């Protein structure tokens, strides 16, 4: 009986210790540093991703945008993309929660004028399955409603489009840039 009680006590202690090591919202990952602006050049295009600040208030929205600028030799160029060429994939680092950025996929043509960036403001994102943990569902619901919970966020933004004729000279682009910001009480 004594041996069984000791094993039970060790198991409970192990479980409690494991629960206490999980990162809590507000605890910065070791390698975390704010980076509210990023820019990537690819071919004749510049992709920019920016947050209006490196810190936002918990429970409120965040202000973030993406830009795509054509810098080639022509006066303009047509790009072909889904509902938008811009994607905003969120990752909250302390909870290790990823928030998807689903999008309708019609084929849309946008004409970019040389030197005039196409800009799109982030408008929220998310989605979850009924089987996902309740904490994740609540987190994503907050993000979807513009109420960002406290935490450390990394955004892998991208511009996904193609140029040219799919039958002849099609060129695919998937340009990425990453930014980081925090949401605090």
Automatic annotation (TrEMBL):
Keywords: Signal
Signal peptide: 1-17
UniProt keyword Signal, yes or no: yes
Protein name per the record: Uncharacterized protein
């Amino acid at each position: 009986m004594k041996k069984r009680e000791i094993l039970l006590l060790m198991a409970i202690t192990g479980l409690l210790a494991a629960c206490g090591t999980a990162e809590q919202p507000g605890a910065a990952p070791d390698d975390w540093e704010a980076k509210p602006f990023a820019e990537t050049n690819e071919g004749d295009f510049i992709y920019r991703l920016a947050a209006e600040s490196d810190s936002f208030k918990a429970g409120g929205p965040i202000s973030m945008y993406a830009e795509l600028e054509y810098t080639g030799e022509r006066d303009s160029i047509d790009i072909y993309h889904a509902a938008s060429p811009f994607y905003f994939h969120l990752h909250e680092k302390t909870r290790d929660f990823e928030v998807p950025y689903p999008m309708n996929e019609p084929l849309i043509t946008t004409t970019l004028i040389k030197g005039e960036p196409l800009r799109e403001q982030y408008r929220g994102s998310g989605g979850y399955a009924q089987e996902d943990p309740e904490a994740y569902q609540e987190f994503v619901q907050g993000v979807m409603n513009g109420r960002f919970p406290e935490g450390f966020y990394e955004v892998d933004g991208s511009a996904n489009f193609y140029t040219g004729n799919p039958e002849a000279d099609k060129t695919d682009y998937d340009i990425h840039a990453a930014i980081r910001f925090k949401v605090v009480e």
